[in-house]
Amino acid sequence: MHYTGTVYRNPYDPPSPLLEITQGCSHNKCKFCNMYSAVKYNPSPMEWIEEDLAEIASFYPETNRLQLLSADPFALSFKRLDAICDLVHKYLPNIEIMTMAARVDNITDKTVEELKILKDKGILELNIGA
Ligand code: SF4
Predict the structure, then answer these.
(1) Minimum CA distance residue for ligand 1 atom 6
(2) What domain range is 28 assigned to?
(3) CA gap 34, 80 in Å, rounded
(4) Per-residue pLDDT of the chain (130 residues; tens, 9 = 90+)
(5) Cβ(97) to ligand 1 under 6 A?
(6) CA atoms lying within 13 Å on the CB side of residue 23
(7) Rounded to whole angstroms, how far apart are CA atoms 113 and 130?
(8) Does the CB atom of residue 39 touch ligand 1 within 6 A?
(9) What CATH number does the domain containing 111 carry?
């Protein structure tokens, strides 16, 4: 698995595999937070994501839930999130819920139509920090 820097599992989420789709935080400027200060923000390469999905599928082929990392993976563009959703369903056909952390501006930079498409593909829970 490709994990970069701090790996944070949301304590309120039921147990589920963790898939890194971004590294670090797209904002990384909050004065009270140093969780990702040593990590440069980057989208994870699609090849890494595909390798990790194959590994998750080998251990948890029936999983219906997935937590996506890292700090605010919903910062990715609609196009990239849409492609990642398709890859997830290719390797994990039982996935019903994908959950991840998000900043408010990760949501407002997408259209309502784009948000509906991502919801229909299983992105049903966004954890928004203060
Ligand atoms: S957006 Fe979240 S992860 Fe990023 S610096 Fe602020 S508190 Fe930390």
Answers:
(1) 30
(2) 18-128
(3) 27
(4) 999 988 999 888 899 999 999 999 999 999 999 999 999 999 999 999 999 999 999 999 999 999 999 999 999 999 999 999 999 999 999 999 999 999 999 999 999 999 999 999 999 999 997 6
(5) no
(6) 15
(7) 25
(8) no
(9) 3.20.20.70
